[in-house]
Write a structure and sequence with these properties.
The protein has helices at 16-38, 40-61, 68-75, 84-102, 110-120, 160-176, 182-196, 203-217, 228-234, 236-247, 258-282, 288-296, 305-311, 317-329; strands at residues 139-142, 148-152, 302-303, 333-336, 343-346. The protein is mainly α and 348 residues long. The protein folds into two domains: 6-282, Fic-like fold; 288-346, Arc Repressor Mutant, subunit A, CATH 1.10.10.10. The strands form two sheets. A three-stranded antiparallel β-sheet has the order 3-5-4. A two-stranded antiparallel sheet has the order 1-2. α3 crosses α4 and α4 (84-102) packs across α5. It is globular and about 65 Å long. It starts with 15 loop residues before the first helix and ends with a strand.
Amino acid sequence: MRDFNYSKIKEQKWDSEVLGLVAAIYKEVGKQEQFLKQKPDELEKLVEIAKVQSTQASNAIEGIVTTNTRIRQLVEEKTAPKNRDEQEIAGYRDVLSLIHESFDAIPVSRNYILQLHKIMCSHMSNPMGGQTKNVQNYISATYPDGHTATLFTPLSPFETPEALDKICEEYNRVIGNNEVEPLIAIPIFIHDFLCIHPFNDGNGRMSRLLTTLLLYRSGYFIGKYISLEAKIAKDKDLYYDALGASQQGWHEGTEDAVPFIKYLLGTILSAYRDFEDRFTIVEEKLPAVDMVRKAVQSKVGKFTKQDIRDLCPALSISSVEGSLRKMVAAGELKREGAGKATFYIRLK
């Protein structure tokens, strides 16, 4: 089995892009702290919206879906799951809520990761919930012509428990000793977790839950207000490309984790900047069309309906669509394209 030594991280020379991303996140964290002091009540709206978006997006990446109405009802615990997909969604909701409420009481250890996985599987009859894999798994891709190819072979079931213990021990050691910047250690831990692929099912969703947990434990609370999972789902091809590039040579310990580090840091930074944009919109109680107008003013060049929905998550899709129609009719916007290719351009 490959060796894990996170002390080597501090010896690596990071390029200007990685260092720039870390510095930019630091700056945004300071801004967020000021926003939280100014309008704590208004921001509670973003918390509930982010929970719904995170639960929906992380499951959708794995092809686990239900309607928007059902997602909202499940996250708010106003209904019981009706099928396998909804059982998986409810399990993700439970773990995400636990992380939101008790992150500081959830140590980074194999036993706790197994417990979180067991909770995620608790609404299903899954005998492997809370247990590491018992069969070899593979990371594969299916191509347009129908053929499949194995992109990466994770660790064997026999090696998995020890490897999980080791990455947890290494992460806790370098974080506890302040040896390594958490914003660098977190992507490396998540990358190693995904390469180990410790479960028969649910590895991707667990990796995203663990990302939120590790960020919270290091004082980065952006996932509470802006869904990191939704940002990953929006550009999931970039996520898979970065992961694939960083997996080459992993078994031999010669991998270059930088593509995955840059991807995750870029996602975190983007979420912090979204937080600032959304804060300026939710801080005032505006009619729907004025809220959409304010969101539009932050856009340069082409933008889509989804771009506006991301900035106005409290509004229903019909409210966003209606507001955009009014602005087109008033000559404030130009609408081009059709169907999924529709986009808008600001005229004023």
